[in-house]
Amino acid sequence: MSEATLWSTDLGAPLHIDTDANPDLWGYLHLQIDKKNFKEWLGLHLTGLAATQGVELTRKLRRFQKSFYEQMIVTLRDKLQADEAFIYHPVPLTYMPLVMHATRIHCEARDASSCEGATAFTVPHPEIPEWQQRSGSIPFASPHLGTDGIRVSRSYPADSNIMMTSVTYHWHTQPGLPDVVLRGHHDYPEVIAAVMEPLDDFARTLRLPGTD
Questions:
Q1: What number of CA atoms fall less than 13 Å from residue 55's CA on the CB side?
Q2: Whole-model pTM?
Q3: Number of CB atoms found within 10 A of residue 130's CB
Q4: Rounded to an integer, what distance in angstroms lies between the CA atom of residue 59 and that of residue 65?
Q5: Considering Cα of 190, then 191, then 192, then 194, what sign does the dihedral take?
Q6: Helix (H, G, I), strand (E, B) or coil at 165
Q7: Average pLDDT, whole number, for the chain?
């Protein structure tokens, strides 16, 4: 991976989506970061989590986490064009981190389920038999983003050994404000299942700056 692809020179970007979530549970992943700051952040992040979780921070764990975050930053910033990304701290360091990314979208439809792209959250993966896939959605209100929201969960086999599980929140906001989509996925469905309540609590903390 080239440094030109990974490291950003735009380090002063303001928050597009904000949260007042518990910092002991949630951390902020800087999508705009240079090599020096990334190295310092990663060292502090991993040292803090290892101390909290009572595990030894081995070279193998450091390499595993470093590789994950480097790839995640590129994917979220350049491919998915996420506005913000947040890390759920309690996931053990031996697992891949759980990163939730938030994005603003514009939709003038009458409700969240009618927004262009919203139905994609529940459309079956075209290359996987439908009987191997699970999806469901429920209404999901937010104290900051309004009552016109949905939460969609999906599970499908990524390969013979991995069952990919994702969760998506989408709020259709009042006219003049962008909608907000919060998404995340994990290769281990038990991780998502174990943190659904904290995820819901976190989702309710999101807000657009200047709207409260």
A1: 18
A2: 0.86
A3: 11
A4: 10
A5: positive
A6: strand
A7: 83
Beta bridge partners of 154: 135, 166
> Are residues 65 and 89 in contact, defined by beta-carbon separation less than 8 angstroms?
no
Question: Residue 91's pLDDT band (boundaries 50, 70, 90)?
Answer: very high
Tell me the pLDDT tens digit for each residue of 60-84.
999 999 999 999 999 998 888 899 9
- Which amino acid, 184? G
Q: Which residues pair with 181 in a beta bridge?
A: 103, 170
* 8 Å CB contact between 17 and 207: yes
- Tokens linked to 59: 């070279």
Q: What is the DSSP letter of 76?
A: I
Comparing 114-118, 141-145, 173-177, the range with the smallest average pLDDT is 114-118
Q: For residues 55 and 47, is the Cβ–Cβ distance under 8 A?
A: no
Instruction: Give the CA distances from residue 44 to residues 51, 67, 88, 90, 160, in Å, rounded to whole numbers and listed in that order.
Output: 11, 16, 15, 16, 36
Paired strand residues for 142: 146
- Which residue bears the tokens 């969760």? 167
pLDDT attached to residue 58: 94
In whole angstroms, give the CA distance from residue 91 to residue 97: 6
Instruction: Write out the two tokens for 207.
Output: 């807000």
